[in-house]
Queue: 4 jobs
Job 1
Amino acid sequence: MSDGKIRRALIAVYDKTGIAGFARTLVDESGVEILSTGGTAAHLRQAGIPVTLVEEVTGFPEMLDGRVKTLHPMIHAGILADRDNAGHMSTLEKHGIRPIDMVVVNLYPFETTVADPGCTFEQAVEMIDIGGPCLLRAAAKNHRHVVVVSDVRSLPEVLDRLRRTGGVDEAFRRQLAAAAFERTEAYDRAVSTYLRQSAGAGAASATDSGAISGLLPDFLNLQLCRWQTARYGENPHQAGAVYRPAAAGRAREAAIPRARVLSSQPPSFNNCADGDAALSLVKELLWSRSGRHAAAFIKHANACGCAVGDDPVDAYRRAYLGDPVAAAGGVLCMSFPVTRAIADVVMNTFGTWGRAAGAAFFKLDVWIAPEFEEDAVRLITTPTEKRRWGAECRLLAVGAMDAPPDPDEPDCRKITGGLLVQTRDLVGLDEERWKVVTARRPTQAEMADLRFAWLVCKHTRSNAITVCREGMLLGSGAGQMSRVKSCDLAIQLARENGHGGRLAGAVAAGDAFFPVPDGPQKLIDAGITAIIQPGGGNRDAETVDLCDRAGVAMIMTGTRHFRH
């Protein structure tokens, strides 16, 4: 029968943070015998802590370059024996096995090892821990009698409970057991994901049929840890949090959950959702080389302003003037670092451009950039009589935005009872597939605008229509049930925001084909001179004929970009 006291503890850790102090307390305050292996034993002995080597208990030396150390009945029977089972205890006594009451183990750093671009397959395999997960799982199964610690961050609380009560209560033992199983589960997923990817990304499995399904695995391994708890979800009555990959990956692109938060206010659930939309758009504009600098304002997941250009201030100005009313209280993403000079421009947006453009005020909820200079952060976050919003603005530094996208990261959407999973939409300016289907070809200026409009449209909620000119979004129709209504809305917004005079000569993009020519007719009537769309409708010929009669150029890309 167990009295819950800790008499023997097996400690074998890779991360030795705080482990010597923990072991010393066990020995000095509770007289615990410490069992250990290899590097951990040497570390403890160097700190003057008495240690019994596992090989002294098993009668076998560590072998196979350390691959076999603890895999022995003298260890695992001591962990797994049910202290309340007379038969188990009799068996231990018969074989001279003493119970082990605590297991402190953390695993080889497989995830961080394979995250190194220089890691070879052989190095990765050597970092697959075998004994560690076995010990954790055995101790976690028998947690009523064995305290299992899989994370050094739990050591202080374990000591605190031992000091206060002389033992560890069953509820906390169960929490520690759950944490151990979660750790081994995440570890196994990391290994299986690495092996699958190293076998060849996109290789079809035995149960797949067709090239598309072969790009998705039979089992989806998502290893996520909570990055931040939000004040609430989309609405105050919902709980919310942001999760990110449990381990860094190879050459990961800039992303919101990896951002450095430079402000006192952490981003909310909605901030992160809109921030991701803003960052995704700006990154794609950079990848496509649509302009040296890009800026975008996002409101409710759609761009209300976006522009590219050779001058960062001009790109920002034109992005803001796309819709200065909607920009207020939104998310701003810039592709360039925020210097003090850039910060001064943005902080004075309302007085410089907003008032004259008919805006009532200006503020930002979130401001995303590769980096923020220290002087810029001080300027933004120091309130003045006319400029108080900066102290509450969330500043997110995401690092360089020019890293290539990760094709292995799945695009997941939660639905009740499961997930919708697809590969990411990484098709951008696939111009080899584009076809000019009208008699008139786009001019050079129109072609540049069509590329820009196509990418902005790709990042707009379907049904989507974007109207652009000279690297600037003039108006968009997003999330409408009717494509023709999206055309109406894009034109209406362009006129309401003072761009009506620029519609003549502007271009338009649609994320899917036009079922009938009524949408293109509205665009042409507004002054649009070039249109880009996927094509593929049964009445494409009528749309092309309409454009030819109006002298409008049209490109069909062959690629649809629905975004729900």
Note: Confidence is low (pLDDT under 50) at residues 201-211.
Job 2
Amino acid sequence: PDATAIYFPTKRRDAQGLLEYVQVSYRELDERSDRIAAGLHAIGIERGHRAALMVKPSPDLFALTFAMFKAGVVPVMIDPGLGIAGLKASIARAKPSAFIGIPAAHAARVVLGWGRATIQKLVSVGGLGLGGHTLARVEQLGAARLRAGERPTPTRGDEIAAILFTSGSTGPAKGVVYRHSTFVSQVAAIRDMFGIEPGEIDLPTFPLFALFDPALGMTTVLPDMDSTKPAQVIPANVIEPIQRFGVTTMFGSPALLDTVGRYGELHGTKLPSLRRVIAAGAPLPAPTIRRWHAMLDARADVFPPYGATESLPVACLPSRTIVGETWARTELGAGVCVGGPVPAIDVRIIRITDDPIPRWSSDLELPDGEIGEIAVRGPMVTEAYFDDEANTGKAKIFEGERVWHRMGDLGWRDDRGRIWFCGRKTHRVEPEQGAMMASVCVENVFDTHADVRRTALVGPRVGGRVTPALCVELEPGCTRAWSTIEAELRELAARHDRERGELELARIAHYLHYDDRRGFPVDIRHNAKIGRETLCAWAQTRL
């Protein structure tokens, strides 16, 4: 109970220039969340009520989240990076009856009219309350209730625990319904997959993943960074706490790991305490993996688990296996191997269609080796989107009382039962002639070029026909002429077709240098998913 649960960075520095941290013990977190849980009931935020939760990564966020779980109040968590329109639409979809947030969030709520039709109860985390209750007052009321013996009834596994909104990277954000049993299954799967032991220390750079730490018995060290802009992290603000606290686990997006990895390579950084680095949000490039391997102990590894907000984790393959066994095939166009399914998950590859599939049948399945859509079933798989029958119908397949989730990803299964990720289904390019082209399969062939940082396959229309085009972002500092690089990429495509042929890369008619200094457009949450829809529209203007 007296072990540290959270180290939270302040803006102060001690005499040695080191950042000062606020410490919160497990006992303090448990007791404070008890008080808040009882206090929420005291002000009329009851079991089953939905409450928008807009609080920055902090001890307040931890205490509030676990208090809401204890009280049976459903937190609605929406990524602030969705923008004004996205936030308003998501809140309107979730219909919360309460709003718990920092003063800036309350000010935006008032000015922009968020949840005006449904929100009745307000809690301000910091500030003066803005017409509602302060969090401190909620705690006071809760403490009085606990002294009187009034404690919330424990929640059940089948009750809704939270509504987590997707990042909106491939369309409007959707509210994923999590039950308490879903979270319990996720915690067990994550613990078993990575061999996490109580007493370990985690540095999570994505707020929602930080909330798993107390359930796993880990100490959380919150980094000094803007979690909404992981690609722009100051590397020293990640490296310093890892070395200072002996961090054993770190979570980061591929964009953050790329930024820190390049810094570490330049400065010869070593991080011997780390046992595992967990990456999620997009496939992890081999150069980034190799940079991190150089910083880690030989027994440590980088793990890019495959999954989504709707189902996590699904599969995982250690990166030392990736670079040692599977990456050579990735560079030849096979896709990215994400490993075998975790024990509790059933994975099938089904035929590609954009239509809803109401009922499961065996004729949906494709044989090993054939690319289709990845579908999953298991205790970590969510059942629906909140108040969204249309998107639920597109993503879920019912088999009696069981539910399959369509990942929206293309992939195939090899003869060892491993899944290979080939890109998003919506990002496939289907020209008039030849087979469907899967984005990730094609792009990894061209990403082998020394001057290329990343590529994106898109399908703009030329003369009314879908025409494959490759958008290219070059490595920072590259000064070679684009005409020379383009010629080399075309020769790379021709050589691949001569030697292998199945991708038919000669169908790529246009190679377009994307020279915006900010790089490719990416998702707001992880800064790692390439915005191919935006790039396709840009390519359309160039042709």
Note: The mean pLDDT is 95.
Job 3
Amino acid sequence: MSAGGESKRGGAASSSSSSSAPAHSLIEAQRRYIDKMLNGVDGMKMLLLDGQTTQMLAMIYSQTEVLRNQVFLTDKLGSAGRTERMMHLRGVVYVRPTAENLRLLAKELADPKYSEYHIFFSNVVGGDKLRALARADEHEVVASVQEYYADYFAVNHDLLTLNLSDSLLMSLPRDRWDRRQQDAFARCCEGAVAALLSLKWKPLIRYQANSAIAQSFGRELQSRIVQENKLFSFGSAASRGRAQPVVLVLDRRDDPVTPLLTQWTYQAMVKELIGLDDNRVDMSNARNIRKDLKQVVLSCVDDEFFAEHMNDNFGDLGAACKDLLATYQKKYKDNQQMDSIEDMQNFVERYPQFKALSNNVSKHVAVVGELSRLVQEHNMMAQSELEQELACSDDHSSQLRTLKGLLEDPNLVGIDALRIVLLYALRYEERSGNQIAALKRTLQQRKGVSPTQIALIDTILSFGGAAKRGVDLYGNKGLLGSIAKSLKKGVVGVENVYTQHQPHLAQVLDSLLKGKLKDAEYPFAREGSQQKNRPQDVFVFMLGGTTYEEATVVSQLNQAETGVRVILGGPHVHNSQSFLKELELLSASQSRVGY
């Protein structure tokens, strides 16, 4: 590293200065970093990213915004096509501090293409890595190195993911972990630390006592906060009139029901029925879809309609989409009336906004139309009603009769048949005379359900059955508690049978925010710690993955204007398919290690 180069720990959003206010949005916290990074380097720039920071950036920052900051080109670090020297540009490197990226950086610095390099790591960098980087800077082109703590994917303002697709494997005993589980555990810790630093929260940490992995994670997170104590010196929360933040570490196994249910809110339905990854929706399988709508983006950052309605239930969404279309039609008619030069000038001025509205209307009408088609084609109303009944009420004979009738329907998709049987097994596993074995035989006779998938009935019971859960998921104080009713956004005037269920997370948050969460069930990671005041800032980290149904609970809490701010995160945001895929990985690993 050059003599004049600078190395800094921390950036704008995580400075140790107590005068800088904590962030209350994951997206805004990350945008602070990107603004600081791009605005802090003068002149024309070349932006070099890795595969993950490319996606992290794309989720919160538009290409237009990047170009506006004098970024001449964007490419991936290590790209073979980047051979031309452009010494009139400054290189801005934004990458995760991985061993592979350090190797690629050393290779880049050995043959520099730009006049100088400003390197930004998305997380904490060990001193040994910085020393290796300094040794690699033989041409003395590194002008600065900084840590910016944005090492997560900000899906919503209050939801993050790490895009790990195998985190359920961490539920195996730690003495049977291989490199895969160790890497996933380390990545979860890194992502949680980065989120806390970006929010400027120095928290108390509590974990689910009945979960070995939650305990390990909570204590490791506490250890890392102590180790990086200088980075967490934000000033006390009390000095800002807030209680000390809390990290609550939960285990997916205490609620295996939520990821299995059909969803009925906009963002969750798109994830479940079409697919939603890094805010991108693949509509290429939709019928009669226009070419320009085969790939669309649904983001609360730059789509006002989506930001407002992403947690609406399907009925309300249809009405909102109709209103959006009516607004467009009115503007379209207004734009047709051009009787003078002044009218033409006004049209030209309004055209960019009108075109943006037109594109947005086309996008949402296409997505909602495809959702409607899939709901009808797969008879999801009847299927979802039974799912909700299995999740929320005990009526064995009636539910079994309905279940058998659905399994006889040839139009029922195999994976949906499996999900309903899994829900039945979770509810009635301890009931004398249950029909789990008979339902397995019925599934064996259906097309589209493999023996591997049928084996998941046993896997889910060994993972999240009654003997493994720390809560009475189906008791009177379970999923239909008071907070479930207070947070529910049903159809006005009628009982919405498709949204009866509320995740177990709702009850846990209710207890925490009321100061009623028992220390024995959710102890502190640091011995002697205690929560003196009811928490106002909470970061829930769900090991095993979160869901959009849980994200809706969190969003509704944050919108209630009670002064409470909850952030939800985990290694993955599941729909039913991704959850079942991870269960298959877990099943295979259990067989391999003899667990």
Note: The radius of gyration is 26 Å.
Job 4
Amino acid sequence: CNKKSFGEIRQELNRRLDYAKNPPLQRISKALNQGAFIYTIGFNISSALVNLSQVPLFVMPYLGARYGYEETGRKIGTMGKLVTSAKNNITNMYDVAEDGTYILKKDLKLTKGLEKEYTELAPVVKMATERGLLTTSFLQDALGIDESGRERSVADRISAFSAIPFNHGERFNRQVTILAAYKLDIDSLTNKGKIKPTVEQEDRAAKNAIYNAQATNGGTVLETAPSISQNAIGRVAMMYKPYGLQMYYTMLQSTKKMLDSNFSGKERKIAVKQLAGIHGTALFFAGVYGIPLYGAISMFFNIFFLDDEEEDFDTIVRKYIGEGFFKGVPTMAGIDVSNRIRLTGLLIQNNRYNQVRGPDDVEGFLGFHLGGPALSTGKRLIRGGMDIYNGEGKRGIESLLPAGIANMFKVFPGLGRINTEGGYKTRRGDPIYDDVSLGEKFGQFVGFAPTGYTFQQERNSILKGIDTAANKKRSKLLKKYYIANTVGDWNELQDIQKDMDKFNKRHPDHVISGKTIQKSMKAHRKTTNLMHHGVKFSTALDQAMKENSAQWDQGLQLFE
């Protein structure tokens, strides 16, 4: 079994080495991902801010479970200051000596305390830099911005420029995580610096820090990403998803340790604390809606216990616990960030604009996930073009602009739709959410929609979905009644009447009365009279279609 595992690992490493040495061009996939990035995260201030939430949301509880939350918080704060002082590139603070060691630059004007901190971090900075972890971004690599041996195209330059805020946030997170994890480990080995660490201890602490950064932030290069994301189709479908895979893998690892008796009691206790801490921070920042297991539970209930004619699981929960507990503390402050930072739905998500629940819309489900952000971007551009063609210029411009710029355009004085229309309105001018405050406009400018608006949109979507499903069920029952009556199936009619009674109790606003049945029967008979060889024509064209049909019949007789 060990030989087999070793062989599989060697084969996978060789495959990845070959991929790194001879990366495929994948020009179409690269172009699709670059376009999708520019139109979703590029130029988007909110995406960079959301990216920074990774440290308090995941890194803090993960490291705090092992080293103590108070001490972890202090170290993260200190390392954040050091990275900021180094202008988000910690390597700027060091020179490389002839023997390869990293030494602090001599011309830096630092206090003794800061000089001591930077000096102690030199071993981990050296190791992380040599592995390309401090200034490289996985997203930058996945977009193909720096594919070796090729000059940057215009698209590369635009992608790189639009990614500056997001990449800086990602670099900040990784540097802070590596440095904080290293210092926490070194302090645990040396009794908080009372004993000078050995070279072996520094090397071990540096490797542990890099491992912790990988576990809590994800990878940095495409060569180490999941294999499925390295082929042309997978590269498009898996855009943004390697992060989700890593987060789920890390949580599953902690779960395994918690349940596996082969691990020590101390390690199992740490694993319990990690899971509890991650769920706790997710609850704080994104509410019940954001905790890791909630998405699976919600999907399970929606598919197996709830149908389209009743409220979905999310609505039932949010009614019971309130919007604040459902979506977290930031939502209480009027900013809805729960969709952006939640730790559920990182791989498989519900299409918010598709009201069909469960497995009924298989084609839409597969297209939504296999097409990735590139498909959504393409549909958005088409919608923008159609809006302009139909005379809805501002909505069209919003769709044609990248999301980050469109957010600013929406509230731009004198031009933005939210300013000129007095709030959020439907296409025909009906108000959805008006009286938008100055703070809410600033939030929209940055990229965060007001809580009141998102709540109303989600509520409208649910109610409309229920209304549509109830009307479909009503029409289906009336159609079945007409067919059973036409063929004289009286037993079936009795069963349908029972179903109608159940429907009426469930939907008092969509009651099927005797008068409703009479009108339906009359309408069905009228439809039958307008049918010609299985096709229905309008009354105005009925006679012309009959004459045309007769001519076709004569033509067919010639071949008989």
Note: The first strand starts at residue 94 and ends at 96.
